[in-house]
Amino acid sequence: MFGFSTVGSVGLLLFFLIPLSGALAALYLGLALRGNARRREGQL
Amino acid sequence: VAIVDSDTADTALVRDYLGRLQAAGWGLAPARRDELVAEVREHIVEALRAEQAHGHEGEAVVRNVLERLGPPEDIVRAESESQAYGVAGAPPSGYAPYGSPGQAASTAPPYGREGLWGPVEIAAVLLLALGGFVLPVVGPVTGLVLVWVSSQWTRTQKVIGSALGLLPVLWIFSAFFFAARF
User: Fold this and answer.
1) Which residue of B60, B113, B116, B129 lies most exposed, with the fewest beta carbons within 10 A?
2) Which residues of B touch A43 (CB under 8 A)?
3) In this predicted model, what pLDDT tens digit does every residue of B70-98 receive, in sequence order?
4) Where are the alpha helices (DSSP H) in chain A?
């Protein structure tokens, strides 16, 4: 049904994008936490 | 305080409520959880004293007081969200001892009490950042679970973080779906 190119492309995308998206989420959450800490410092 | 310490059917309701509050607060820092339970307990005692002063007593009165406080889970949720910004010594934002329960939790001002980077937050970010390489699927999923367990991010930040982690996967499945159709 699918040629190697399709399966291989999806596999490669999965291989690279899943860790990449996780890293992106980690970056966002890290910056968000830093923002929360700064807001807290501004309040105290 | 004797109202709560005495051993009657009414006080069993209060003890049960405080027990549920204690259980619901498992995700909070232990010191903050104990403090929250003590604060709520004090509010209940004050409310019951006020009712007694007006000649109102009995199980129905206790139930009314507890209903006005709202479900313990809502109090903990409001506390968690206010801690994500947090203000030292401030009561939980959505927690209105004599008002309607669970109001304005998301409009909490920036508050703060403890360091924001705890073991849960560090583990969550590391698992999200590196888990995909070291433990495919299990690592990032565990990281996302830890993000949702933590009280240091707001709900919005958790949703955005989860979407960032999961959306590319959805794109891939969408691409696979369209590739299968055309």
Assistant:
1) B60
2) 85, 87, 109-112
3) 888 888 888 887 766 554 444 444 444 44
4) 4-43
